[in-house]
Amino acid sequence: MLVSAKEMLNKAKAGKYAVGQFNINNLEWTKAILLTAQELNSPVILGVSEGAGKYMCGFKTVADMVKAMIGELGITVPVALHLDHGSYEGAKKCIEAGFSSIMFDGSHYPIEENIEKTKELVDICESLGLSIEAEVGAIGGEEDGVIGGGEVADPNECKMIADLGVTMLAAGIGNIHGKYPANWPGLRFDTLDAIQQLTGTMPLVLHGGTGIPADMIKKAISLGVSKINVNTECQLAFAAATRAYIEAGKDLEGKGFDPRKLLAPGVEAIKATVKEKMELFGSVGKA
Ligand code: 13P
Questions:
Q1: Residue 36: burial class (beta carbons within 10 Å; 0-12, 13-18, 19+)
Q2: Domain residue spans of the chain
Q3: Which end of the chain is more exposed for a tag (fewer CB within 10 A), N or C?
Q4: Domain 6-232 has what CATH class?
């Protein structure tokens, strides 16, 4: 069932667990994530970056595919379809296309402009019953050509954005997209703690879920993180399984070249990754 992310995240915050946002790239990705969520009776958020939206022939194609798949596969757990790191224009396009949730990433604007644009989108989302994520303090690393500086958010700015009525708030706490370098100093729990003290019951979002050690994930959840984004880890799992299939020469055996066979190990690898994360985040059985 396609829903806004509001209720599932408020429940997660109150219950001290987190809902996973898994980014999608195509039909296989979407199917793997939806089936795993249903099997584990877990709520789930499907993330779509602007780049992935373009790749999949536009946000309308994505929204229609996801809605149809939820129906055809008989998915009854709560599913939110969420724009990831949206621009102001991208957010408006997703609202029109039928997404149930958007992220407006105004972290690269001066705080006054971030506030102004976020507020306008909050009002639109509120009137339509959609959820909205805002960001303070750019997340480091590179994603779809968007390069963030790995900032640590100012808790007072977080409070200003939270007070605009957003559903959830992403704050930079030393997290980055993609693989973490060997000398990464870890998450800034002091900042996360300060943000939660000021923002209270607001569900906080941890981006860059790939490669964060399990103990840090658990600590982040205990300090108010209720949504954790994972993208690269599914890509790595898919690529490794596909590589193993081809290196074993299986595409050359019988009809092993059939895409339904060729892509099957990758799909299973995504399912295994999503399952592992849902278990770690504590969302299993929480649908
Ligand atoms: P990773 O690719 O590091 O898992 O980050 C995903 C993310 O934060 C999407 O917004």
A1: buried
A2: 6-232
A3: N
A4: alpha beta
